[in-house]
Each structure stands twice: as structure tokens, then as C-alpha cells.
Amino acid sequence: MTVPTRQVALLRGINVGRNKRVAMADLRRLLQELGYVDVITHLNSGNAVFTSPLDPSASAEGIEQALVRELGVAAKVVVRTHAELAAAVDANPLRAVATDPAKQLLGFLSATPDAERVRALALPTGDGADDDQFRIIGKHLYLWCPRGVLDSMFSTVDWDKRLGAATTMRNWNTATRLVALSDPTA
Predict the structure, then answer these.
(1) Do 105 and 151 reside in the same domain of the chain?
(2) Contact indicator for 80, 88 with CB cutoff of 8 Å
């Protein structure tokens, strides 16, 4: 058994519209029943912080199965350790242009995309603060949408299909808050 670590579960597509409704109290209970401890949730969009001895991929798989079994909800779950999440935030390649955290997104991918898929994206992006921009580093997708997410060219991109990995997005405010909430020294 490995040393327990603080982890963050990011559920994709829940509590958006009428489908895939999951009360955060139910999510906390479900995670506790799976044996995770120090469980907290953040917002109503499927963010949970917990401590587990499992590796993140095993945690993700267990949570996905329990969501279907216990709550009847099929949702992709991506899990990062606190260290992985903090490193992703620290590596922000759009720091120089992304001036509004509500317009910057951090995408969490279930796997590192194949380099050929990344090259094949061929999405037009500029390099100025007024241009939509994206970067991919490992299992993280960084988006800058200066006119807002809904008015961005990225709003119509099927990232899962294009990258060959399940993707769930969080705005920068949420990503940095999850770093703070998952910090084992706080």
C-alpha cells in the first residue's frame, strides 16, 4: 500500500443543465463510502478533494464505477494529486497574456495526447492578449479566451475527439482554489 496523498477528483459534465445531477452531499458520502478521508467538495460542478492511498488512475476508476452503481450517473472522472495539480498551475504557459482568471481555462486530460494528434489540431491562435490561445503540456490543456469562453473559437472544439483523451475544464479561479484546498500542509 502506498502513502496516502491529497487528491482532487474532477467530474466531467455533471450539474450542467438537467442531466447528470449529483448533489455535492451525495458525492461526499460516496467518496467516504469508498474509503477516502478528509473529503470536501468545491462548488456544485464536481470538484472533490480527498485523501487516498490509491494512485490517481485507480481513484478515478473507482469513483466512475461508484457514480454509476450508487447514483446512476455515468461521468468521466479525472484525478490529480495535489502535487500534480500545483505543478500544472505553476507551469501556466499563458501567464503573460491571461489577465482575467475567469477567461482562462485549465483542461485536465485523462491521458497525455499523442504528439501527432497535437500537431494535427491546426487551430488558428495568435500570441497577443486579445487572441484566443491554447497550449498543451503533458496531460494539461491551457486556454486563454479573452472575449469569454462562449465567444471563443474553442467553444466548438471537441477536445476529447481531437486529443484522444477525455477532457474536463475548470476556470483558473477554480483550479487555483483546488490547489489551496488540496494542500496537505494547509
Answers:
(1) yes
(2) yes
User: Which residue range is the domain that position 172 belongs to?
Assistant: 86-182
pLDDT digits (tens, 9 = 90+) for 112-126: 999 999 999 878 777
Q: Give the pTM.
A: 0.93
Retrieve residue 28's grid coordinates.
Answer: 461526499
CA dist., res. 34 & res. 13, Å (int) = 21
Return the H-helix or E-strand segment holding 73.
none
Buried-exposed string 122-161: b where 16+ CB fall within 10 A, e elsewhere:
eeeeeeeeeebbbebeebbbbbbbbeeeeebebeebebee
Domain containing residue 23: CATH number: 3.30.70.1280
CA angle 130, 133, 134 (to 5 degrees): 165
- Report d(CA 48, CA 149) in Å as an integer: 23
Same domain, yes or no: 101 and 177: yes
CA dist 86 to 8, 26, 30, 142, 149, Å?
11, 27, 25, 14, 23
> Are 139 and 111 contacting, i.e. CB atoms less than 8 angstroms apart?
yes
pLDDT, tens digit, 9 for 90 and up, residues 2-57: 789 999 999 998 877 777 889 999 999 999 999 999 999 998 889 999 999 999 99
